[in-house]
Structure formats: C-alpha cells, structure tokens
Design a protein that fits this description.
By secondary structure, the chain is an all-alpha fold. About 70% of the residues lie in helices and about 0% in strands.
Length: about 190
C-alpha cells in the first residue's frame, strides 16, 4: 500500500475511534500493510467489519486476522483437484507454476469481490474446465456401481432381520449421511 492509501485507511479508522494520526502512525501501519500484503479496499472492508462488531480501536493485527480468515475461506473453495493441460504432463515445474497461477488468479479475483461486498465466487472445477481424463473414470465407476448387486444370500439375510429400534436408527443415520452427499452424487450423475 502506498502512504496515501495508508493515510486513507487511518482516516477511516479515526472516524470510528477519534484517534489522532501522525507520520509515525502512517509509517508503522504502512510497514505492516506491505509486509502482510494488504490491499487497500480489502483492508478498508476489514476495518469496517471490525468496527461493526468490536468497540475497541482497530489495530493492524485485527485487519491482518480478518484478511487471513478471508484468504482461508477463499482457499477452502478449491474442493477438487483439477488436471492441468495435457501439454504440462511431462513438465512438473510448468505444472506447478500453472497450479500456482490458477490459485493466485482465483484468490485475487475472489478477494476483490469480497472487498466490494460481493459473494465470494467458486473456482472453476473439472467439469467447467472441460477436462476429459477424470470424467471418463467417473463414468466407468458409475457403470460399475450401477451393475453391482448384493448376492442372493446377503439379500435374504438382510430381509430376515427384524426392525429393531437400533436398525431403524441406523437406517435413518445412513439416509441422513446419504442426503448430505446427494449434491456430490447428483454432480457425478450429471457428469458426461
């Protein structure tokens, strides 16, 4: 952040807690802002968010903690591994750079959206990137599961067990667990 951006941030803080701001404050906050890689709009949002819920004067540690939590939330949006382009298969360094660039681009865009009080987007996942290798595997697994059935003796054994309260509770727990996983299963079914 530039000294002018730090002055703007400290001026905003002064509106909340009537602090006085001097050259040393600007230098100290600027040092921390640049060391912690604050972005002006994101730092301003973090300051306002802190002032909204905490009456204590905002300190650099408060802003850093809020921004770290937002970065962690953004990175948690990467829910599945994405195959790099085929031409990077034999070049590990290029693949690592491609992955780093993908994450950096998404984090920057998501951080900017957050700072404008917009919803944090989700990164493009496999099916959105048009990857071909893993969807084939997914289709094969789906076909394998569809053709799977329990042997007749196991089916008879399952039918012979009486409905005890424990079995009813187990079935309810299993259905609840399946309902939690249903969006992922539906996504697998929709994947060509």
């Amino acid at each position: 952040m530039t000294p002018e951006q730090v002055i703007d941030l400290l001026s905003l803080a002064a509106r909340f807690d009537q602090r006085t701001v001097g050259d040393e404050d600007v230098r100290a906050w600027g040092l921390i802002a640049n060391e912690q890689d604050w972005h002006p709009r994101a730092a301003a949002r973090a300051l306002v968010d802190h002032a909204t819920v905490d009456p204590t004067p905002v300190r650099p540690a408060h802003i850093t903690a809020i921004l770290a939590a937002v970065r962690k939330e953004i990175r948690s949006r990467f829910t599945e591994d994405v195959c790099p382009p085929r031409e990077l298969t034999d070049d590990p360094q290029a693949e690592i750079e491609w992955r780093r660039q993908r994450v950096a681009t998404f984090v920057a865009a998501a951080f900017e959206a957050w700072s404008r009080r917009e919803a944090i987007p989700h990164p493009a996942q496999r099916h959105e990137l048009g990857e071909t290798e893993r969807p084939q595997l997914t289709r094969q697994v789906r076909e394998l599961v569809a053709g799977f059935s329990l042997p007749p003796d196991v089916q008879r054994e399952r039918q012979a067990k009486p409905d005890t309260p424990e079995r009813v509770a187990q079935r309810a727990a299993a259905r609840a667990a399946l309902d939690e996983k249903r969006p992922a299963l539906d996504a697998l079914r929709a994947d060509p």
